[in-house]
Amino acid sequence: MTRGRNPLDILPSMAGDLGRVDTELAASVDSRIPFLTEIASHLITAGGKRIRPGFCIAAAATGLATDQPAKLDVIRGGAAVELVHLGSLYHDDVMDAAPSRHFVASVNELWGNHRAILAGDFLLARSSEIAASLGVEVAALLGATISRLVEGQTLEMQHLHDLERSEAAYWASIDGKTAALLATSCRVGGIVAGLPREHIELVTAFGRAYGTAFQVVDDVLDLVSNDSDMGKPTGHDMSEGVYTLPVLRHLAADPGGELSSLLNASMTDSDCARAAALVRGSGALDDAIGEARRLAGEAAVALGDLPPSPGVTALLAASEHLVRSVEAAAAHPTAAR
After folding, report:
1. Could you say which of 78, 143, 270, 272 is the most buried, measured as most Cβ atoms within 10 Å of its Cβ?
2. Rounded distance, CA 76 to CA 188, Å?
3. R_g of the chain, CA atoms, integer Å
């Protein structure tokens, strides 16, 4: 995936709107304790494509006839979903003992696990404050989404280093840990924009299908990209004991084979590189890309009944970009160089 730009930037207003989201994010983490402000701001200032607030803005724009700057409530909704995402990253990095995030040192690396956990909690609390200001439905939705994130992550942790992990367990995990927040991003945009209920359901369905495809793509990229592309070593998920769709497909096709013997809690870097090469050399990678393509198609179908709009155009473009990017990465894997 091209990591340097937001895939929704086909909307002329998107750059300006995301700049407004960044301003809202900075204001939201301004604490009476300057040290907490510094820690909570760390990943905000590190940048990122702001995909989740972008989806909130684009979903709201599916109800507009022309491209125009988003309303303030849409910007605030985008900030709320991004704060949930950032808070979850702070906690994820503690669990993974990750030294970096977004190509900068992680919060836990700089300030330790205890402070990282507190800062993550602070981000989630500030998200809840913003959500409450947008109404009861948005507040309840964000609360339920945080629960789904925890459930998805818990399901993943239940199957660490599990060679018997089922595809059903994989899909259930990513529905919570990734798809739920992207679905919510779209839904919040629809709610605060005052779109009709059927319209809101369609953009929510788009977000869930796209979010599922997004995670499959990320799992493929983990096997075909290198540290400079992804900010983490090739095959990082396998080394952490997270066996994703391409790996599960390979294991199913070759039970008890070489890959099975390599996957364990004490994998070396060379073991990881060999395991990634095995999956890349099999049909499992193409299978996973095919699933991402199918899910992106489902996302596009969800928008098929909506009238043309700048938001629909942007969301469809993002879905197409997602598939093109992973196909290009798989065709020219930097990890193999």
Report:
1. 78
2. 10
3. 20
Compute the distance between CA of residue 198 and CA of residue 62 in angstroms, rounded to an integer: 13
Residue 65: how many CB atoms within 10 A of its CB? 10
In a domain, 7, yes or no: no
pLDDT tens-place string over residues 316-329 = 999 999 999 899 98
Among all chains, which residue has been given the structure tokens 């919570």? Answer: 176
Here the tokens at position 175 are 């529905």
Backbone dihedral region for residue 206 (phi beyond 0: left; psi -120 to 50: alpha; all else: beta): alpha
DSSP secondary structure string for all residues of 70-120: PPHHHHHHHHHHHHHHHHHHHHHHHHHT-SEETTEE-HHHHH-HHHHHHHH
Confidence of residue 286 (pLDDT cuts 50, 70, 90): very high
Enclosing domain of residue 223 = 14-336
| Residue closest to 145 by CA, chosen among 92, 190, 181, 186 | 181
Domain membership of residue 3 (yes or no) is no
pLDDT value at residue 30: 97
Give yes or no for residue 276 having a pLDDT over 90: yes
Residue keyed to tokens 């473009």: 317
Say if 294 falls within a structural domain.
yes
Residue 147, in any domain of the structure: yes
**Nearest CA among 328, 318, 326, 303 for reference residue 10:** 318
| pTM of this structure | 0.94
